[in-house]
Amino acid sequence: MTTWSVVIPTVGRPCLTDLLADLSRQAWPPQAVYVVDDRRRPAEPLQVEASVLRSGGRGPAAARNLGWRSSATEWIAFLDDDVRLPDTWSDDLVRDLQAADELTAGVQGSIVVPKPAGRPLTDWERSTAGLENAKWATADMAYRREALEEVDGFDERFPRAYREDAELALRVRGRGWKLARGRRSIIHPVRPENFWVSVRVQRGNADDALLRAIYGRHWRRYAECPPGRFKWHLATVLAALSIPAGFRRLGALAWLALTTDFIRRRLEPGPRTVNEIARMILTSPVLPFVAVWHRAKGTWRHRGSTPWPPPLRAVLFDRDGTLVRDVPYNGDPDRVELFPQARQAVERLRTAGLQLGVVTNQSGIGRGLLTAEQVAGVNRRIDELLGPFNTWQVCPHAPDEGCACRKPAAGLVLAAAAELGVPPGQVLVIGDIGADVEAAQAAGARSVLVPNRRTRTEEVLAAPMTAPDLTTAVEYVLAELPGRR
């Protein structure tokens, strides 16, 4: 039997309700639907009939990773929250999945963008209509879980819904998998946007810079992305900059010619209404400068980038139940007892050049059962026994205080990563319960669960990676280091 689940990243747009209603009408329901709330600080939780996960505003790539890693099905169907589904979508999807051979990692659905009747498309409508020809777009793309695990999912360095799906497809095919087009289809309406949308989307040039840093100057060919207009934007900016550099007349003529041509190319196929003409005239002179600015920022930010996942640089341990035996609300350093494998595990990771830290919930402080000084004393004793850690992050709050640091929230992991100067994607968390794993996932870090007697079965089943003991967990970590694979 083919098993499949649905993952939908969202920022809480009203269109999500329509999509979930479409899913509820399907004749062949999925095993699970995961809605991943990617709002940074939602005022209130999503009220939907689905499993809701929180990814903390890290972008759709990170949200999709959280979703598929939370599922347990053979296939994961990714949908954007602004698409609509025909009533036959699930039947067609299952047929697509059943027709896929064992070397097929993913099957894409066709994207239909509704066109207005009786008039040409606006610039923004043409941009959206381009999705109909996009390859491997996650507006409707089903991936085999095995393939996602092999490549570690989406590259979370892509912060917006742009290029992250093409880059994933590139890595999947690079591992010898095939991708196919299915028979199913979805409808992708043109969402309303403001006057300056064409300028705002130029932020995607920073993502192009990431692809170039990883795959070189021919990245478009490898990723099957159509040629862009960046060279012309760069020429326009250089022409403008040459004006104050002493080439006033020549630079001005070149800039005027390039800008006029750009306006013409954008207006010619469009409806030429007053609003569209004004939009093209006002945005076209600005757009090249914004595009070049974002490309320059992206080039600097992503210099030296390597393919996903980036190499590990830090490991964070849970304290009680992972490094030391769990003594409830312990405030006595003399009661600290290391697990037998803890010292060797820490030493091996430290010798490998990794930064190390501890992230621990200590609700006894918030409950009035311990003082912060007592907890600090216990932590100092652990430092004495295992060598000093590079960072200690302690949540002192009781569970009902609603803080952002208590695991399974991301706060402790993010704070540790910030103190170490390491991006969360290059951090791994080792813990003994599901809250440790969930905190890592929420922060965009990796994780290894080392179960013990208090670890619930469902936590073990949900963990992306488990190890029977600390020694094995360390072996997993060391295998991820450059030169050890």
UniProtKB/TrEMBL annotation:
Keywords: Carbohydrate metabolism, Cytoplasm, Hydrolase, Metal-binding. Its main location: cytoplasm. The keyword Zinc does not apply. The keyword rRNA-binding does not apply. Residues 5-102 form the Glycosyltransferase 2-like domain. Pfam families: Glycos_transf_2, Hydrolase_like. It is found in: Cytoplasm. PANTHER family: D-GLYCERO-BETA-D-MANNO-HEPTOSE-1,7-BISPHOSPHATE 7-PHOSPHATASE. Belongs to the GmhB family. This is D,D-heptose 1,7-bisphosphate phosphatase. The lineage of its organism: Bacteria, Bacillati, Actinomycetota, Actinomycetes, Propionibacteriales.
